[in-house]
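Lecture notes, part 5. Sequence design as translation. It can be helpful to think of inverse folding as translation between two languages: the language of shapes and the language of residues. The source text, in structure tokens, appears below.
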């Protein structure tokens, strides 16, 4: 089990900012936290990392209490760039982490090259652009080869080139076995990184693990829709009917199988539409009232 959160509640005086948060991540994956500002994403991350106390609930990470000091060597948390020191160089930051993590100093150079910041690693952070600071934060977060890394808005303010570079690095980390939890408002980038999304609102998780978001959905416009409906039913194929068309997910019914069944029964297909639900569309459905206000 990578992370197990049960009944997490956080209050500031009488205001409840996290309400019974419960979720589990059992195997390495990229998980996105998506929601409006003030929905509780950063507060939840701070609670998971033991930076904020909470009133109720339990959190375990990699089979240990989230308060276990040994997690310091296995987990990283990328916060915003206010944790950086302007008078130090990027290399200074990385070497300091190598020291406290008991890593060889050469690791700082290796990670700087991996992230793509070797050309400015020896410059003072006060001269860095926002994108350069984000790269340094990411380098600091991955220096210890973490099994779990949390990133709070790492794409915020990045130009397209830097955002793409960041995405590729995160996907590479995941491919190597690291679990990534990322909060972001950039739904287009989220769609390209993962289809596991926790939508948050007012301190609650509204929906989780929407693993079918980026799986193709097809709509078939057909002749003899009543006959087609019976064909799908008799073959126990899961579809949704809309008048003279039928919609289904590639995950539940492969397109070639649907076409083959209809062809064998002499059904003419007039049109095939291919679409994806995507994070933005689901966000608009879940937060319709906020978008109208």
């Amino acid at each position: 089990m990578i992370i197990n959160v049960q009944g997490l509640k956080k209050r500031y005086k009488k205001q409840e900012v996290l309400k019974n948060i419960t979720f589990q991540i059992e195997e390495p994956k990229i998980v996105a936290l998506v929601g409006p500002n003030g929905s509780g994403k950063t507060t939840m991350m701070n609670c998971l990392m033991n930076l904020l106390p909470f009133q109720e609930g339990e959190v375990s990470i990699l089979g240990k209490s989230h308060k276990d000091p040994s997690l310091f060597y296995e987990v990283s948390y990328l916060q915003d760039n206010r944790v950086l020191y302007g008078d130090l160089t990027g290399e200074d930051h990385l070497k300091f982490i190598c020291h406290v993590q008991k890593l060889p100093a050469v690791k700082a150079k290796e990670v700087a090259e991996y992230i793509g910041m070797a050309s400015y690693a020896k410059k003072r952070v006060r001269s860095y652009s926002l994108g350069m600071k984000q790269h340094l934060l990411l380098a600091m977060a991955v220096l210890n080869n973490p099994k779990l890394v949390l990133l709070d808005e790492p794409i915020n303010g990045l130009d397209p080139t830097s955002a793409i570079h960041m995405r590729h690095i995160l996907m590479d980390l995941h491919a190597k076995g690291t679990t990534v939890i990322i909060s972001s408002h950039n739904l287009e980038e989220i769609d390209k990184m993962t289809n596991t999304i926790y939508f948050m609102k007012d301190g609650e998780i509204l929906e989780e693990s929407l693993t079918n978001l980026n799986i193709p959905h097809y709509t078939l416009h057909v002749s003899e829709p009543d006959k087609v409906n019976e064909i799908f039913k008799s073959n126990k194929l899961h579809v949704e009917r809309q008048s003279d068309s039928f919609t289904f997910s590639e995950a539940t019914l492969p397109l070639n199988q649907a076409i083959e069944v209809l062809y064998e029964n002499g059904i003419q297909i007039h049109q095939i539409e291919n679409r994806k639900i995507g994070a933005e569309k689901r966000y608009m459905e879940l937060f319709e009232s906020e978008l109208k206000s």
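The translated text above is only one of many valid answers, since several sequences can fold into similar shapes. Residues 91 and 121 are 5 Å apart (CA to CA).
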